[in-house]
Batch of 3 targets.
Target 1
Amino acid sequence: MRVFTSLDCLLHNPPFEILDGDKSEWLESPARIEKIKQVLIKSERFKFEQFIRKNTLLISKLYTTDGTQFEKKVDIRVSEGRSSSGVIPETFLHFNLVDSDDFSTHSVAQVGRFAFDMTSTITKDTWKSAYAAVQCVLSGANAIMNGGKTAYALVRPPGHHSTQDLCGGYCYLNHAAIAANYLSGRKVILDVDYHHGNGTEKIVKGNEDILYVSLHADDDYPYYTGHRNAGNAINIPLPRTTTTDEYILALQKAISHHILPFRPDFLIISFGVDTYNEDPIAGFSNVDRGMYTQMGRQISQSKCPSLWIQEGGYHMETLGDIVKDVLSSYMD
Ligand code: SP5
Ligand code: ZN
């Protein structure tokens, strides 16, 4: 399996986050990527490559239909003079707050305007990492477009919570949506991250070439989305008590009832592994390590070229092994 990653993905490193109201270490750390790499690199089945494509214009064209908003968002990423700890969004432009587009130039307002929660700190390195992540994803997309069976974008920060103009949940640019818009033909985005990919659902909404299918925890972050199917989004909320067997059954059903009938040319996997029972921010207490080899096997039944994009997964001790379990069993 070709693995696309970049050292630039390690740069973004906010000093802390607010978790359950308390100051806590930034869980979505650069070490996550290093851990996964350490495990995969020991196996000859994974071939590491640097990204090959460099094109800002391409990203903006793919990312959003509203170029202006995107440009504003990029501005806040690249502006100089930020403290090394970055700016934490803390006052948000709630949809009910103002009547007109009358925005402040204060740095808190600049980041709050483009964020929906506090876990989207903007540091001097955020844009560099987010940009590199997109390049890795596009390189992976090229690999499967050119006849490859599968590719893995080992990237951070993750993407599936970010909408066209909003950051949140550690996410800045939506990799799965970018890949889906980039690839031609019919695409399924299968989102197995513990959390609902609200951003992906929102961006691909109404695009009939794309089907979004998500398995996620009911009644957990991001709270307001993912409760029911809508248009091209199949949402499968699962209780926190979900066991390994129940999860695999739900995945099987999602594949046979939704993914296969859609007849996709490409499968994009929003590959979060925070479903694991020891994950520090997630809550599936009955999902064990055995789930991950089964997950890979199930997904291989889709029999179409696949692009795996790293999303969440925060249990550092097992992170690399879990990722390897899924990808190896997918290839078997
Ligand atoms: C990409 C991704 O996985 N983003 C997830 C961001 C989740 N942030 C909010 C977490 C809220 C956790 N609350 C329960 C913690 C248990 N102590
Ligand atoms: Zn997650």
Target 2
Amino acid sequence: EEDASEPKKAKVEESCSTLEKTHAYGKLILFGEHFVVYKVPALVGAVAAYTDCSIEVEDNDTGIVEIVDNRPAVPNYKIKKAEEGKAAVDLVLNHFKIFGRGKKAKLTFGGNLCCASGIGASAAQVVALARAVKQTLPQFATLTEDEINAAGYEGEKGYHGTPSGIDNTAATFGGLLKFQRTDGEPIFEKKQLKEPIRIVYASTGITSSTIEVVDDVRAKKEADPAWFDALLKQYCDIVSKGEKVLEDGNMNELGKLIDENHKILQDLTVSCDELDTLVIAAREAGAIGAKMSGTGRGGLMLALTPTEEIQNAVAAALEKIAPQVWKTSFQ
Ligand code: MEV
């Protein structure tokens, strides 16, 4: 079931045309994991790799939904996430009120996104499912992109109780987004980049639980609000500067801010030794900024690598110490 045969070499993601078929993208958070839950802005980039889904429906009275999961994954990911994944799929099916008694459905998930903690694989799965519902079932043929995203958000609740919605929004719309959760609908906008941003990302090989880590951050916030508010304030300053330097295409400044964001995530206690080791190695190999990305306490880190040469050097350095390494770019 697991794709343990993956060669330990950085994979270059192949791009695909946007919104094709049932594609839903993975994501990397440039600024704002955890803080985004508390309704401040974040910047997120979709990666080119995607999950897709096909649905086969048979008329019979079993009402059984069979899930075939052909997605590539880091070892243990699918085992650890099996329960949550099943709950997420059910939430999307319930949202659309489909496949009750009288129909048998087979859902097949695939694509080239390697599932790893931090890459938004869960969001990509549920958004791909929503796209497949639109593609396969005539009564849903007119679903809008916002409705696909809303269905993905429902599914995300299977993975964590209070998702900010950042992952499903990146999975649905792709590109580089500024995203903010609000009391109502989230606000998000696509950022135009002067040029693609080259990134290397690497997995610690540790699958963490988003629900557990988000809950623990909430408990720490409630225990010491002043401590959390001070970190939140520092973060808000970084993300507003980050947006500006991104618009200006100032990669060196962007790198410094990414480093600063990592420091805040360490203070928030969501980084860990394994992530810090990869971050330091990436910087030593020439990355102009590096940070953990996503839930943390395992999962992924990313490195900003402005040229192909630096991207290759950083990937080569990380390949020696990380179980999985990928090269991508934000467009
Ligand atoms: C997970 O990719 C990002 C978190 O901020 C959770 C969320 O935004 O829902 C940790």
Target 3
Amino acid sequence: HCPVGALRERDDVQKVLDALADPEKITVVQVAPAVRAAWGEAFGLPRKFATVKRLVSALRQIGFNYIFDTNFSADLTIMEEGSEFLEKVKNKENETFPMFTSCCPGWVRFMKSQYPGMVDQLSSAKSPQQMFGAVAKSYYAKLLDVDPSRIYSISIMPCVAKKHECAIPVMNDAGAGPDVDVVLTTREVDRLIRAEHIIPSDLEEEEFDMPLGTGSGAGVIFGATGGVMEAALRSAYYLVTGRNPDPDSFSKVRGMDGWKEAEFNLAGQNLKVAVASGLSNTRKLMEAIRKGEVQYHFVEIMACPGGCAGGGGQPIKDGEEQAEARCEVLYGLDKVNNLRFSHENPSVQKCYQDYLEAPLSHLSHKLLHTDHHAWLMPEEETEE
Ligand code: SF4
């Protein structure tokens, strides 16, 4: 807490309670990958016990109508961003490299304020949070056969910056208000569980709702530094060659180093990639790119050290950094998932087949991509 009380943590729990109490609203909640590795820490639960299925059970007791997994839209992000990257590689003579990932709003804001001349190199893909919200208020509303304006879209994130991202005025592409109405951090959801008198150690495991509750191992590692890159390379390999690589072939981008590099051969094409986490590492990497000291095709940046596992909305234990242990949980979940490739997620395939048509289609562009120039940096922060 701020010692002089000048800053306070924004708390949106009451907004969620109001939505839950409103019979006109259909509450659709998504749970981000990194939350599952951390939500139980505040209750002193062992990591093996504090599974995402027990969090699902808590959310169901609280009264959310539909409980889904952001891993679904992480897989969707890979389909869009991976396809966008391959288009750029095909057209490399006319493109500027590297392409940068765009799923971390902390990084996108940093890029817009510090390196505005390079904003066009950001992927136009929205983050998984925003993609999920747009799909919930379009495709899923259609599946439920309800007016999209009745869907109240909530996300549970490891991240404070996601609260600002959902409020960006252009993030409303389904035509039913913001893609995401409210964001709760992991700390807020822990407070909500306490406020509802739920005893986490008594929870049984329960499944996500379907179809947006299906996610691959590639989706779950979005919560760890290097995970977006690895997931994208797994599917890019498939999209180029028509066959799956060994899912662990791109594991060189794992680990807690603040700036990692790797080179891979993708069907005869040599690709140089880099992964950075933490903004001081990011600045070093960006300066090296700007001075021409390093050249890459694809770069993943996450503002928090260790990626979302170490996000600013996660439980805090004074003097102990938990990001590495949480990343291990996420890689463990990837390893045991029957699905390890985003392009094999059957719910993602069905969403394309029945609604979006294909990655980068007209509708995919409308709902799942954004123009990073279309919003200005806020002049000042009022709440944090
Ligand atoms: Fe949010 Fe940090 Fe993850 Fe970026 S790295 S999305 S700022 S939690």
